[in-house]
C-alpha cells in the first residue's frame, strides 16, 4: 500500500516499508532469489560497459516455515566470476578490490494470507557480503557463481551489451507521463481536439512523432511495477523491486545499503561533464525524479533523497556527482526544516544548503523566470505535489487556503509555473551551463498518475494535455534555439492504470434520476456515445496551437473509469472543488465511500482490498514516442530497460573513459 | 444494444436496427448531417483514385421538436461538383450519369432521454436523390455543394489522395484481432511466456514485428465504434456509422439503399484479378468478414450478407465481384435453410449455391484439409461462432451437446479447425488460384471481442494467443513457400475494450472467505502481484515454439477486469464449463446477475445501462504491427482509414485501370 500512498501524499506523511511488515497477497522470501543463495545483480542482468554497480551476496537459512532448514546460514560461501569461457576467478581478484566483511542479519516474512491472518511469520537468518562500486569493462557474457551449503550453486549470467560507442545525440530530453497509457492519450485527444466527420482537425504533439514503440513495464519480481522501480529500469537498465530506487532490494534492515547501479544522470555527468536538469510536477523527492540520483530500496526516504540530489550517495564511495544543474518541482516540506514544519535530512535548511553550493533559488514562478541561465538552479514551488493544470487554469479558487507556499510561511502557492515554463527554463539553463558538452533533462508530468489514483479523470487528462503542450512548446523552443536536430526527444510512461473511455453520460438525465438503476440509463455507448462535448461548447480559450477543452463540464461527459478501485461514488462530472478523494478510512484500514465525494452519484463497492484508499497501477505496455538522433532505436516492442541502453548508446556512453 | 448482441449471438437471433427505435443517450437526427442539407460521402471524406462510390443527398424538414421548420423538404435542391478551383458543374454532367429520381420518406428520432421517457419523438420529412457508382479519377481536392431552402448550402470537401501507383507488394494478409488492445497483448504475454528476473524468455510473434503504429478507431459520428463501421474504415478508407457495412448510413427506411463505397477486396479483385481469402472464427455473416463485400447500414442482415459473398450487391449496378476464393468460418445457420432450422436468403441452400458456382465445400476441419488448392473453397464449421481455443484445446467436453454441426443435422461440431489451420489452408488455395497475380487475405480472431463482451477474460486471452500463434505459423508458412518477402503482413484490431490487469488474486484465500469485503483481501497489487502463475505449474504443453499457459487455473490468478460492465459476479477464475454469461434478463430489458455464473464470487452492480447483458467497446487507439513491403507506411499514430490507403497504395491500386 505504501507505493500508492507515496504517489500522492506529501513526503512528510509517509512511513518506511519494512520487509517484515509485508501485507502480501502473493509472497516471496526475497524477490529475485528463489533459492537460498542470492546474487544481486541477478541472473540475466544487462550492463553498460563501464557502469558502476554493487554486488550483494546473501545466503538464507529459514528457521521455521515450509522452507525451514536449521537456520544456520553458510559463513563460508564462495563467489567467482568468469568472462565467457575463461577460468572463473574469485571476485576480489576479478575486480581488484578487497574481500568485504561478512555481514549477518535476520528478517521475517509471511508465506501467504493464511499465515498472515494467523500471525505466524517465517524467520530467516542471513549471511552476506557486498562488493562496492565495481564495473565490467568489455562487452560480452559473464558468469558469476555463488557456492554455498556444500555443493549448492547459484549461477547467474550477466551481459555487457555491445553498443556503438559513437555519440549521435548532443542532448536528450526524456518526458515521462507518469502512469500514462495509450488509452489516456486517446481520451485526452478526444476532449481537446475537434473532429469533423471522424477526422481530427488537429493532432496531439505526440501523434506527430515519427517513431512509436511499446515498452514492457513489469517489475523484476512482480508483474506490476510502481514508479520507483520502473524509473530505475528506465534510468539504469536494471529492473528492480517495488519501492526501490537505483538499487536491487536486499533483505537487510538497513534501507541504505542495498546494491546500487549507476544511473543515466550519474553516467552522463561523470563521463561527459554535460549538464543535467530534473523537472517534475511532483514533490521533488518523489520516485520518478529521485531515481535519477538516489539509491535506496525505500522510496519513502524523502529527506535523505533531497540531500542526495546535492551531495550524492552517503556512506559509500560512489560515482562523481556534484548536483543537478536544474532541479524544479514541489515538495518544499523537505527543504524548510522543522522550525517551519518541514522534515529535512539532519534538520538542515536545504534552501540554504543549495545556495551555499552556488545554486540560485526560486520559490515561485516569477522568481524562476528571473533565475540566471549561467547558474545552477533550484526551483521549489509548493509544499507537496504542485497544483494541477485544471486548478491553475480553470478552477483557480482551489489554489486558495492551501497554506502550501514553498517558503514555509504557510501562505498560498498561487504563483506556480506550468510544466512547459519549467521545462523551457531548464533548457535555457542547461544549454548555457553545458558549454557545448550537451545536456540531459528528465521532465515529468507526475499528476497524470496521482489523479488517476484518486479516480479524478478530468484532472489526470488535464495533466496529460499539459504534458502534450509541453512537448509542443519544447519542440518549438529547441527549434528556435537551433538545438532540435541534435536533441533526442523521448516521451514515455513508467506504467499504466487500467483506464478507458467507453461512451458518454447525459449528466442532466443522470442528475434528474434518483434511483441508481435509472441513473445508469444516462450512460450512452456505441452510436449513443455521440461526439465529445468538451470542444463543442464553453468559452475557455488558449493561445493559438494550444489544445485544451473549451469546457470541462458539458452536459454529455465521458463514461470513463478504472476497474481497480476502492469503494467510491461516481457521478461522471468534473470535480470543481479540487482533486477528488474517493474513499476515507471507516474502521482502521477499511476504506469506505467518502461521504463528501460526488454526493449525487452511484455508489460502487470497490474491487481492491478494503485497505486501499485509491486505485492502483496496471500491467499494460506503455507507448514510447521518439524523435531525433537515434529515434530508430525506439520502434517496436521491447523491455523498459532498453530505453536506458538506447539513451546511453545515443549519448556515446558505452565504455567511455575506460 | 444491437451492436453488442450482434457480436456474440447467432445470426438468426438478431433483429434489424431501425432509425426510429433508437434508444439514445446522445442524440443525432442523422449522423454526419448537422444541418438540414446532407451529403454522403460527407465533408472531409478521402478517396482512392478510381474507387467506386454512391452519393446520397438528403434535405430534412422537421415537423416538430426543437428544430421544427414547417415539415416541407425542398424538392428543388441543387448539387454541383468542382475539382480544385474549376467552375462547379452539376453532378450528372460531372459524372456523366443521368439525374436520378427524387425520393421521399420520413423518419422519427428522440432528441434526448427525457423525450424518450415521455414518448415524444420528432418527425422529419425528407427529399433525396442518389447517384450510383461514380468515381473520382484525378488526385486532388474537390468541392461538392448542396443548395437547398433558397440560399442554404452544405459545402463538402473531398480529397482524392495522391498515392504512389507502383505496386510494391504481391500479397497482403491483414490479421484482425477483434477488440484487441495493447493491454490484452500485455496480459496474454504474461500468461504464456516465461520470465526470469523481469526478462521474457520468449516473445509474442507480434512483438517481433519491425514497425508499430497506433490507429484511432472512432466512428464518423460517435466516438465509440462497433466492428461494422470500424471494418468499413479499414477496408474502404471511409469511416461510417455504428452497424453500417460498406455504406454511409442514410435516413431512409430501406437498409439496402444506403450510399456504398468500394472495399479493398472488391478493388483488388476488380483491378488485379488476384485471389481473395476471408477467414474468421465468427459466424461468417458477422461484421468484420461481411464488411469486405456487403453494403448495408444494418449488420444484422445475415442472410443477404451470405448471398453478397457469392453474388455481389443486389439491386444496383456495382463493382465486378465473383465471390471470394476462400470463405472459412462459422455461421452455418445462414447456409442450411429452414428445413434444417436455418435462415437464408430466399430460403435457398447456400451450400448448394456455392457448389453450383464451383466451390469445394467443407463442413469440418478434416474436410477442409482435403479441399483442393486449385478450386474455390467454402468452409463452414459450426452453427454460430466457432468454438473457442480454450474449449477446443483444454476444456474439450464443452464441445459436446452443442448440436451445432455445420451440416444442419444438429450433431456436435467437434472437428473444428483452428485459426492457424484455416489461414494456412487459405494461403495454399489463394496462392495456387491467383496464378501469380497476388492475393489478399483477411484473417480474423473474432472471439477476443466476443469473450471480452461476456467478461470471459481467460477465453479472450486464449483467442489472442491463438491469433499470435497463427501469425507465427503464417510467417513460417510464407517463408516455407517462398512468399514472405513479397507479402505485407499487418496485424491490428478494429476497436478496444477497457480491459487491464492490475495484480493477482489468491483464489485459495478468496474461496476460503465468506464475506465479500474479506474476499477482496485476496487481491494482490504491486509487489504482492508476484509472478504469473500460468506458466509456473500445470501440465499442458504444445508444439515447440508455440506458447500458451501450462495451466489455466493456478492458485494465483489475474486480477483483471472491464470497467464497462453489466451486473455480474466475479470470482477471478477460469470458467471451465464454457463461455461465461454474466447477466440474465430479470424484468424486461433489465439484466441482473446470472445466478449460475461464479456462484462463489463477489456481486458487483454494473456501470452500464441495465438493458445491457454484456460489456461494451472502448475508445482506445489500437496497435498496428507491420512487416514486409511498405511496412514503413504503418508506423506512428494515424486514423483507421489510413490502413486502407496504405494497403491500396502498396498493392498499386490507386488510379489503376483508368
Automatic annotation (TrEMBL), chains A, B:
Family matches, as InterPro entries: Alkaline_phosphatase, Alkaline_phosphatase_core_sf
The family note in this entry says:
Belongs to the alkaline phosphatase family.
Name-wise, this protein is alkaline phosphatase
Active-site feature positions: 227 (phosphoserine intermediate)
Q: Where does Zn(2+) bind?
A: 178, 449, 453, 494-495, 617
Where does the chain bind Mg(2+)? 178, 286, 288, 444
Query: How, per the record, is the cofactor bound?
Result: Binds 2 Zn(2+) ions. Binds 1 Mg(2+) ion.
User: Lineage of the source organism?
Assistant: Eukaryota, Fungi, Dikarya, Ascomycota, Pezizomycotina
Amino acid at each position: 500500500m505504501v507505493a500508492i500512498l507515496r504517489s500522492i501524499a506529501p513526503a512528510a506523511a509517509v512511513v518506511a516499508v519494512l520487509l517484515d511488515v509485508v501485507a502480501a497477497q502473493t509472497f516471496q522470501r526475497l524477490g529475485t532469489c528463489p533459492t537460498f543463495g542470492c546474487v544481486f545483480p541477478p541472473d540475466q542482468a544487462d550492463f553498460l560497459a563501464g557502469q558502476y554497480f554493487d554486488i550483494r551476496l546473501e545466503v538464507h537459512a529459514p528457521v521455521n516455515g515450509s522452507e525451514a532448514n536449521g537456520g544456520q546460514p553458510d559463513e563460508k560461501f564462495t563467489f567467482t566470476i568468469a568472462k565467457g569461457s575463461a577460468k572463473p576467478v574469485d571476485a576480489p581478484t576479478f575486480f581488484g578490490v578487497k574481500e568485504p566483511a561478512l555481514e549477518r542479519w535476520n528478517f521475517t516474512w509471511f508465506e501467504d494470507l493464511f499465515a498472515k491472518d494467523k500471525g505466524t511469520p517465517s524467520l530467516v537468518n542471513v549471511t552476506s557480503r557486498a562488493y562496492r562500486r565495481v564495473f565490467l569493462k568489455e562487452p560480452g557474457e559473464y558468469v558469476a557463481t555463488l557456492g554455498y551449503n556444500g555443493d549448492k550453486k547459484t549461477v547467474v549470467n550477466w551481459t555487457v551489451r555491445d553498443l556503438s560507442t559513437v555519440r549521435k545525440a548532443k542532448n536528450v530530453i526524456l518526458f515521462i507521463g507518469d502512469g500514462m497509457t495509450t488509452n489516456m492519450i486517446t481520451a485526452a485527444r478526444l476532449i481537446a481536439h475537434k473532429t469533423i466527420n471522424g477526422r481530427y482537425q488537429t493532432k496531439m504533439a505526440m501523434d506527430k512523432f515519427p517513431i512509436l514503440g511499446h515498452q514492457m513495464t513489469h517489475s523484476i519480481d512482480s508483474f506490476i511495477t510502481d514508479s520507483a522501480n520502473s524509473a530505475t529500469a528506465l534510468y539504469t537498465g536494471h529492473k528492480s523491486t517495488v519501492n526501490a530506487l537505483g538499487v536491487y532490494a536486499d533483505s537487510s534492515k538497513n534501507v541504505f545499503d542495498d546494491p546500487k547501479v549507476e544511473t543515466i544522470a550519474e553516467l552522463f555527468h561523470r563521463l561527459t561533464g554535460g549538464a543535467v536538469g530534473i523537472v517534475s510536477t511532483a514533490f521533488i523527492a518523489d520516485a520518478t525524479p529521485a531515481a535519477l540520483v538516489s539509491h535506496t530500496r525505500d522510496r519513502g526516504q524523502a529527506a535523505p533523497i533531497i540531500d542526495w540530489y546535492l551531495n550524492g550517495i552517503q556512506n559509500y564511495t560512489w560515482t562523481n556527482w556534484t548536483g543537478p544543474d536544474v532541479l524544479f518541482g514541489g515538495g518544499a516540506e523537505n527543504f524548510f526544516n522543522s522550525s517551519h514544519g518541514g522534515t529535512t535530512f539532519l534538520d538542515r535548511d536545504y534552501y540554504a544548503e543549495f545556495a551555499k553550493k552556488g545554486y540560485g533559488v526560486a520559490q515561485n514562478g516569477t522568481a524562476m523566470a528571473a533565475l540566471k541561465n549561467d547558474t545552477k538552479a533550484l526551483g521549489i514551488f509548493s509544499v507537496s505535489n504542485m497544483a494541477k493544470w485544471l486548478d491553475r487554469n480553470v478552477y483557480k479558487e482551489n489554489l486558495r487556503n492551501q497554506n502550501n507556499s514553498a517558503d514555509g510561511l504557510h501562505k498560498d502557492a498561487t504563483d506556480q509555473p506550468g510544466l512547459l515554463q519549467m521545462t523551457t527554463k531548464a533548457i535555457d539553463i542547461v544549454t548555457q551551463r553545458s558549454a557545448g558538452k550537451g545536456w540531459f533533462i528528465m521532465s515529468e508530468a507526475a499528476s497524470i498518475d496521482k489523479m488517476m489514483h484518486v479516480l479524478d479523470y478530468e484532472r489526470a487528462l488535464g495533466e496529460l494535455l499539459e504534458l502534450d503542450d509541453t512537448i509542443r512548446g519544447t519542440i518549438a523552443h529547441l527549434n528556435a534555439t537551433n538545438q532540435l536536430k541534435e536533441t533526442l526527444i523521448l516521451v514515455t510512461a513508467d506504467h499504466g492504470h487500467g483506464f478507458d473511455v467507453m461512451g458518454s453520460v447525459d449528466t442532466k438525465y443522470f442528475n434528474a434520476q434518483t434511483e441508481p438503476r435509472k441513473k445508469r440509463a444516462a450512460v450512452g455507448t456505441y452510436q449513443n456515445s455521440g461526439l465529445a462535448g468538451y470542444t463543442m461548447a464553453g468559452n475557455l480559450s488558449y493561445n493559438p496551437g494550444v489544445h485544451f477543452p473549451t469546457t470541462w463540464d458539458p452536459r454529455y461527459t465521458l463514461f470513463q473509469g478504472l476497474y481497480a478501485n476502492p469503494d467510491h461514488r461516481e457521478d461522471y462530472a468534473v470535480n470543481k472543488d479540487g482533486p477528488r478523494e474517493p474513499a476515507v478510512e471507516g474502521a482502521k484500514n477499511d476504506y469506505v465511500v467518502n461521504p463528501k465525494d460526488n454526493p449525487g452519484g452511484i455508489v460502487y463497492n470497490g474491487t481492491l482490498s478494503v485497505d486501499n484508499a485509491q486505485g492502483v497501477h496496471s500491467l499494460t505496455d506503455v507507448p514510447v514516442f521518439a524523435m531525433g538522433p537515434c529515434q530508430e532505436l525506439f520502434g517496436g516492442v521491447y523491455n523498459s530497460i532498453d530505453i536506458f541502453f538506447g539513451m546511453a548508446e545515443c549519448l556515446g556512453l558505452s565504455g567511455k573513459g575506460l
